[in-house]
């Protein structure tokens, strides 16, 4: 665990939604709608643009976002529908800093993510030595932030999400189908739910979901057993009643 509330929320948001990193800079709280039945957020990306589209967060990411927003509220920020989902860093001991809310910048977001991943050891930094004639970091072939989007795309494929719906989650055009393919929201949500397990990073979240499912199944089995016993008792009482009628 090397990330604070904000960085953790950003990382899990990117992993579970597949949005481009520049999109998170524009997101406001009114772009999030909780889906309590599945503990998800419905996210409208580029909500004020013709490019707007819908994606979702996993329960894991939803929890991280809620923790981050609660952290901001705890130190005095008044959240409104127009508040940025991700804001600049603030001094929690300075009320002026808390209330002077500015959206997170793209440069700051990329720096936060890069430093966090390097600190975790997931990604090592190759530094240019004097032998190379210059100082600094060697530029990677693929931008780090693009990796989250690629991960999202790959996991949806593994989860067998319907191909056109997968492209919608990525905000891609699907050609002529842009005009003809208009799936209902429940259909889109159910397609996303196929990928939730594969988009979940922490194994604890998967285990928690399995426990919930097991508890639900056990409850259903208990209900079926009770119903079965009641049916057997009713049959027994009916047979006893008929038997008494025969022998008397």
- Strand count: 5
List unreliable stretches of 5+ residues. Answer: 124-135, 138-142
Quote the beta fraction.
5-15%
What is the SS-derived class?
A: mainly alpha
Question: Main sheet?
Answer: 3 strands, antiparallel
SSE pattern: HHEEEHHHEEHHHHHH
User: What Rg, in angstroms, do the CA atoms define?
Assistant: 26 Å
| CATH first level of the largest domain | Mainly Alpha
How many domains would you count in the coordinates?
A: 2
CATH topology of the largest domain: hpI Integrase, Chain A
From the coordinates shown, what is the CATH architecture of the largest domain? Orthogonal Bundle
Strand order of the largest sheet: 1-2-3
Roughly how much helix do the residues carry, as a percent range? 55-70%
Features:
7% strand, hpI Integrase, Chain A, single chain, two-stranded antiparallel sheet, three-stranded antiparallel sheet, 248 residues, 2 domains
Topology:
Elements: H1 5-17, H2 21-26, E1 32-35, E2 40-45, E3 53-56, H3 59-74, H4 95-99, H5 106-120, E4 127-128, E5 136-137, H6 146-158, H7 163-169, H8 177-180, H9 185-193, H10 196-199, H11 203-247
Helix pairs in contact: 1-3, 1-6
């Amino acid at each position: 665990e090397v990330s604070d509330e904000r960085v953790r929320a950003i990382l899990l948001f990117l992993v579970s939604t597949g949005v481009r990193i520049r999109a998170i800079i524009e997101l406001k709280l009114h772009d999030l709608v909780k889906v309590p039945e599945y503990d998800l957020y419905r996210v409208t990306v580029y909500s004020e643009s013709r490019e707007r589209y819908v994606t979702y967060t996993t329960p894991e990411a939803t929890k991280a976002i809620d923790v981050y927003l609660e952290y901001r509220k705890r130190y005095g920020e008044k959240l409104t529908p127009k508040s940025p989902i991700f804001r600049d860093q603030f001094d929690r001991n300075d009320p002026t800093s808390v209330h002077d809310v500015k959206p997170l910048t793209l440069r700051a977001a990329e720096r936060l993510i890069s430093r966090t991943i390097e600190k975790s050891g997931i990604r090592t930094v190759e530094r240019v030595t004097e032998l190379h004639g210059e100082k600094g970091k060697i530029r990677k072939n693929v931008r780090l932030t693009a990796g989250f989007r690629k991960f999202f795309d790959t996991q949806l494929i593994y989860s067998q999400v319907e191909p056109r719906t997968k492209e919608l989650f990525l905000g891609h055009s699907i050609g002529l189908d842009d005009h003809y393919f208009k799936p209902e929201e429940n259909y889109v949500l159910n397609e996303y739910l196929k990928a939730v397990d594969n988009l979940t990073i922490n194994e604890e979240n998967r285990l928690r979901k399995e426990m919930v499912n097991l508890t639900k199944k056990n409850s259903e089995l208990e209900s079926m057993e009770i119903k079965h016993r009641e049916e057997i008792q009713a049959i027994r009482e009916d047979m006893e009643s008929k038997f008494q009628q025969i022998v008397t």
